[in-house]
Structure formats: C-alpha cells, structure tokens
Specification:
Layout lengths: L9 H17 L3 E2 L3 E4 L6 H7 L4 E3 L15 E2 L11 H10 L2 E3 L14 H12 L4 E3 L13 H12 L6 E7 L4 H19 L3 E8 L11 H15 L5 E6 L24 H7 L3 E2 L25
Parallel strand pairs: 2-3, 2-9, 3-4, 5-6, 7-8, 8-9
Antiparallel strand pairs: 1-10
Helix pairs in contact: 1-8, 4-5, 6-7, 7-8
C-alpha cells in the first residue's frame, strides 16, 4: 500500500527505469563503485537489491540475512556491537566479504551503546580478521571537538590499532534542497579534514529525528537523492555511500525516506536513487566473496 501523498506514477517510472537499467547493463555498464544501500528483510528484498543499481549493500550484520547477493554486487559485513565480537561471528564476516564495518552508533543507548574504552579493548578482535576495516559510525557529529570518534581514533593511534577508513552517518534536518546538499558536503569535508582518512557514508537521507520523526515530502526526498548522488560522486575522499534505507520502515507509519514500498514498488526516492550514475565495468570494484553455507547465529539486530 502506498503512503498518502505519493505520486501514483512512481511505480510506472520504476518499471521504465528498470527496463532502462537492463538495456544499459546489456551495453556493458555498471553502477558506480561508490553507490550502495543499507537493507533488511522484506518480501521483495531480493528483487530490490538486484534492480536498485548499486555496487554494494550491507545489513548491519556479519552476513546477508539470507538476502540473495546479486552478481557484481558486493556484500559488506558489519560487527554491530559487543555481542557480535565472537569467533563464529568474526569468522562468518570473513567468509562474507573482504571489508568490515565497525560498531554501529556506540554513542547511542538504543544502539550498540559502548564506551570508547570498551570499543578500543574489543578492536583487536576485528583487526585480527585481516579485513580492511572501517571505524565505528557514531550518531553525533564526529568532527566536533572531543567527539566519541575523536577519542576512539586518538586511542587507536596510541595503541597502534589499525583503522582504514572512517564510517559516518548523516541525516539532514533542513529540507531545502541546496542547503541540504551543501550541509552534507560541508559535513563530509570537515570529517575528512579532521581524520585524514577515506570516508564511507553508511547512512544518509533527510529526516528530523524528533519524536516522532519528521520527514520531507516525497518530492523533496527524491530531489535530494538525485542531487546528493551528483555531489558525492565528485568527492574523491568519499569511497562509498549508502542510502538509508532500501527497505520500508513502517515503525512510525509515515516513512518517506525508504526506496521501496512494502508492496515492492519503488518510492519516488527509489526512482531517483535507482537512476544514479553508471560506468564501464572496468572502472568498478566489487570485491567480497560469496557465502556458500550461511549459518544463522543470532536473530537479526534491528538497525533502529
């Protein structure tokens, strides 16, 4: 069922764009190697991952949560928090991909909720996988003086721990298109200036995190998706970016940031995100490995 205010033409445009993507793929082009998405299970997730025109995805888990990984789309595992720092989970992450995402919003009580000291004490277990590894991604702005991530990175440097890139989350509370895109760009530049490492933007969209959350209109969200992609592709220090979220989030009953409706149709934001840049396969980097025998170790952690 579509949410109120959504253009009825979105589904038709989605079909048109999917047909275009199939045609383009036949002409030997692929999605931008930067472009990805965060996803969890919903009835149409396998088709959605295959058609949304991304090069990588993640699930906030060390495995795909039984999502079928399409050819030429990389899965990137995550060690979400302290309860995932176990030999079986770490081994599954190694089998699932070649790059590892660190703890999810450790500065939030309702997320992985870890002190800097706890995270540093556990970090050697993650680096011992030998995988390329991204920092914890905090909810608060990591570029602020004395931020959780600043303390973590200082501690990691003092202990000689490896961190290969910085993971960040960003949600725009300003729904004016130009201001939102500029705010995101300024944020990323400030983080890069502070840490001097490549950046992975692993969650982003326009949401005001009030109670309940406030969303822009579908038209505003779709225009931001298009313009933000254009901007992100120009920043050489941004290695990857991932929209939040592929899957519909019905928790508040007014979700206007997901790329898909519950019935499997593209939302207006999904139409815009799917239309993102393509390029010859020779310029793409997929990496990762196929998981042949996936073991379900724990119930999936909600990313919320």
């Amino acid at each position: 069922m579509r949410l109120r205010g959504a253009p009825q033409s979105a589904g038709l445009w989605g079909i048109f764009l999917l047909a275009s993507c199939v045609f383009v793929t036949g002409c030997a082009v692929a999605a931008s190697p930067k472009k990805g998405v965060g996803a969890w299970d919903f009835p149409h997730v396998d088709r959605a991952i295959a058609e949304i025109n991304v090069s990588w995805f993640y699930t906030w888990q060390p495995h795909t949560m039984r999502i079928t990984k399409p050819d030429r789309v990389e899965f990137v595992p995550m060690i979400w928090g302290e309860t995932f720092v176990k030999p079986k989970q770490l081994e599954l992450a190694k089998k699932s991909g070649s790059v590892l995402l660190g703890f999810n919003e450790p500065d939030q009580q309702d997320q992985s909720n870890m002190t800097v000291q706890q995270a540093l004490d556990l970090w050697p277990h993650l680096t011992a996988t030998g995988m390329r590894i991204g920092s914890p991604a905090t909810a608060a702005d990591p570029s602020w003086s004395g931020s959780w991530l600043e303390q973590f990175m200082d501690g990691a440097k003092a202990r000689g721990y490896r961190v290969d890139f910085v993971c960040v989350h960003w949600y725009g509370e300003t729904f004016d298109l130009d201001r939102a895109v500029n705010n995101l760009k300024n944020f990323l530049q400030a983080v890069h200036h502070k840490f001097q490492l490549p950046i992975w933007l692993t969650e982003y969209s326009l949401i005001r995190w009030s109670n309940p959350p406030i969303y822009p209109s579908w038209e505003q969200q779709a225009k931001f998706a298009s313009k933000s992609i254009e901007m992100l592709e120009t920043l050489s220090f941004v290695e990857r970016y991932a929209w939040y979220s592929l899957s519909p989030w019905m928790k508040d009953g007014s979700d206007r940031n997901s790329l898909y409706y519950q019935d499997g149709d593209l939302t207006p934001a999904g139409v815009a995100y799917q239309k993102g840049p393509t390029m010859p396969p020779s310029n793409t980097h997929t990496g990762g490995t196929e998981v042949l025998d996936e073991t379900w170790l724990d119930p999936p952690i909600s990313p919320f």
